[in-house]
């Protein structure tokens, strides 16, 4: 996977970064840490400009998150309960959790979207309830872009300083990325195996 990401970034430049960030948020097997980190490395190597990298990454992130927002907006809150009742086990989710999210978004929707942009497990997931609970389109886009920009700055500059220090860092990216993905899969499987629905009230 890392080789494919590297080739796409090197061939597509900023368009490649933007496309990968959209893809990462719609189908998230590729971590944004990898994409923006490589972009920052390329800046450190003098092959990209930081401002255009951040623009491409932030636009891509916002578009990818807006996809899931629209899915939630079209699905609607009323149609969600049968899906949660049937498939909630796989998301380790119960209807009371959905109701709690509804209350949370009603009070603090924009803050939730902004803060969750910094949480690896929830960066994309938060877009679906934002649409389900009818957060305004403009508010969602603005707060998503703001959070994404800050997160991308952190990732890109981390890659930038690595790229400045290690010109041949590409050789180390594959094992690190593989370890990151394996850890994420193990964390999900552990939560799935240990999750139990709350006992029904008598």
Automatic annotation (TrEMBL):
Presence of the UniProt keyword DNA-binding in the record = no
* Domain VTT: start-end pairs: 30-160
Q: Which InterPro entries match?
A: DedA_domain (IPR051311), VTT_dom (IPR032816)
Q: Which GO terms describe its cellular component?
A: plasma membrane
Q: Where in the cell is it found?
A: Cell membrane
Q: Cite the entry's keywords alphabetically.
A: Cell membrane, Membrane, Transmembrane, Transmembrane helix
Residue ranges annotated as transmembrane are: 52-71, 111-133, 140-160, 172-193
Q: Which domain of life is it from?
A: Bacteria
A family per Pfam: VTT_dom
Give the record's membrane topology: Multi-pass membrane protein
Question: Know the name of this protein?
Answer: DedA family protein
From what organism does this protein derive? Sphingobium amiense
């Amino acid at each position: 996977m890392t080789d494919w990401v590297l080739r796409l970034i090197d061939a597509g430049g900023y368009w490649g970064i933007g496309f990968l960030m959209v893809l990462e948020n719609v189908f998230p097997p590729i971590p944004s840490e990898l994409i923006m980190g490589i972009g920052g490395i390329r800046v450190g190597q003098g092959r990209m400009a930081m401002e255009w990298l951040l623009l491409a990454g932030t636009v891509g992130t916002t578009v990818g998150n807006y996809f899931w927002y629209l899915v939630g907006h079209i699905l609607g809150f009323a149609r969600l309960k049968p899906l949660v009742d049937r498939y909630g086990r796989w998301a380790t989710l119960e209807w009371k959790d959905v109701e709690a999210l509804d209350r949370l978004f009603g009070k603090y929707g924009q803050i939730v979207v902004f803060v969750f942009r910094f949480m690896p497990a929830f960066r994309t997931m938060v877009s679906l309830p934002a649409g389900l609970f009818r957060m305004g389109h403009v508010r969602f886009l603005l707060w998503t872009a703001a959070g994404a920009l800050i997160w991308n700055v952190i990732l890109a500059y981390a890659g930038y300083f690595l790229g400045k220090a290690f010109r041949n860092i590409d050789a180390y990216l594959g094992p690190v990325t593989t370890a990151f993905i394996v850890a994420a899969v193990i964390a999900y499987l552990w939560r799935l195996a240990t999750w139990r629905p709350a006992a029904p009230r008598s």
